[in-house]
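Hi P.,

Sorry for the delay on this. The queue was packed all week, but I finally got your sequence through. Input first:
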Amino acid sequence: MNYEPGSHYIKHDGYVEIIRNLEFTYSKEWAESLVRSRHTYLRAEYTVNQLKKYLVSNPLILDYGCGCGVLVDLLNKKGYLAEGVDNSPALIEYCRSHMTGKFNLGTEQDSNRLYDVIILEEVIEHFSDPWNLVSSIRSLLVAGGILYIETPNVEYGSQCIRSSDHKTCFTASGLLRLLSDSKFEVLELSTKTFPLNVVLQQAGGVPQGEIVKSGLVIKLYPFIKWAINHLIYNPLLQLPCWVSDRRNKGYYLTVVARKV
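Then the structure:
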């Protein structure tokens, strides 16, 4: 399999291994681009909603590979106790300056500090050895602790293996095997496809043409815009997402697992 010059892809049972000659560098500018994206906030809200029933009794939460820090910021603003860790000094510096919560470099992380919930949101695909990663994560969880993973579904989205910073892309069966081999009990498996209008960041929904200079139209325009957005435009864009998710063929795999 060859899609990108200088890279090659090895298909295994349950995952695709991606070998590249260049390493991706995460920068402050990269973080800023994520913070400007509606997609980033939608994913963060989705993660919190998926985990709500597990976030009881004031759990200590770690977002491992926290990136731009939006998820940690959201969790703390919702009243949870969340921390972030990342291996990029530039990203940690950005998070400490712009986000709410405690952020540590991977080299600064206290290996004796245990967490009730650990989140890997679009993280494992960035590692050439995700098995070692998940094993390390397990050692940071309390007994019976919760691990949440979100990662692109390689069966239903070729973009996963085309992304310049991805190294291992999983199928659902491959991800379940990874967790079983790492001594986790899978509690939930689902897929998610985010609406195209959010991914493309079409914040206004309907294109903003010039409003006709009519008093009645001007008065009715907010309602007309709302109706077109919510009754026609957004549902049409979300319909294929809803269908794919119901058939567990969405673009993202999401898994909730318990340490055993």
